Amino acid sequence: MKKILIISLAAITLLSTGCSKKHTQNQLPAEESIEITLQPTDTKIPEIPQTWHITNKRICVIFGYDFNTPEIYEPLKAQLSQKFGLNEDGGLIYPLVYPEDFKHAPKGYSSDLYSILNDDENDFAGLIILGAPEKTHLALARLQDKWEQNVPYPIIALYPQDDVLGMEAACDVVIDQGQNSEGNLEESEQVITDADEVLLETINYLIALGAPMTRDISVQTHVQQMYKNKNIRRYVDSESGLQSINHFVFK
Questions:
Q1: What residues form DSSP beta bridges with 124?
Q2: Helices vs strands, H then E, count in the chain
Q3: Which of 94, 87, 91, 96 is nearest to 50 (CA)?
Q4: Angle made by CA atoms 146, 149, 153, in degrees to the nearest 5
Q5: Residue 69, phi then psi, degrees to nearest 5
Q6: 170-215 pLDDT per residue, tens
Q7: Does residue 151 or residue 27 have the better pLDDT?
Q8: pLDDT over threshold 90, residue 94
């Protein structure tokens, strides 16, 4: 019995010693320990969430005279990209700058514009032309002929510099800066200050409308709903004194 007790104690002592050595071997000395430092990730979190959705529809926005310099159209384009998305990203806005985005501009502008608008790959929901260059109305007239005078989307000219009567005939709505006491349009420097607001209001209205401008509602009603915070009046021809049906100026 005494021998059994001695053997048992010896076994327990050996087992305890072995576990202690094994535990010690699994631990690194302090001088051999590795210090781990966490580094910030390079992944950037977008500061502004995407507010627009991918769409097959396009609203073409042309930056013409007074709007075709980088310091003017780049900030406007950035706003449109953030709010509506650009064509290249599957967004709503199809931006074009005159004359850079037209193959033979200015000589071939009207034919190039017609080719772009007549491209079956684009499902246009509207056309907005800022500072329409000369002969714009010729391309729009061809477009009207192609659709038998029923273009399936609204055409709006903001501050055009093309032929007045031609633009009135080719567009649903023409918007200008105010006229002076002689009935002449004021200098265009005033336009740039609120161009972004006017452009965004125009696009928002076309989105809400979602269809061509029919005769069910008068043009003036469309314009008043489009620019709710603006004072508008009909454009008056300086020579004849006649008021235009679809041409308006901001007071």
A1: 58
A2: 7, 7
A3: 91
A4: 85
A5: -90, 145
A6: 999 999 987 554 555 555 444 446 889 999 999 999 999 999 998 7
A7: 151
A8: yes
The C-alpha R_g of the chain, in whole angstroms, comes to 35
Q: What span, in angstroms and rounded, lies between the C-alpha atoms of 217 and 198?
A: 21
Give the list of residues 6+ apart from residue 45 with CB closer than 8 angstroms, or none.
none
- Identify residue 13 by its one-letter amino acid code: T
Q: What is the DSSP string of 134-202?
A: TTHHHHHHHHHHHTTT--SS-EEEES--S-HHHHHHH-SEEEEPPB-TTSPBPPGGGTGGGHHHHHHHH
How much is the mean pLDDT over the chain? 82
Residue type, 187: E
How far is the first Cα of the chain from the last one, in angstroms, to the nearest whole number?
118
Encoded tokens for 24: 């010690």
Q: What is the pLDDT of residue 23?
A: 46
Bond preceding residue 49 cis, omega within 30 of 0: no
CA 131/CA 162 separation, integer angstroms:
8
pLDDT in tens, 19-74: 444 444 445 445 555 555 555 555 555 555 677 899 999 999 999 999 999 999 99
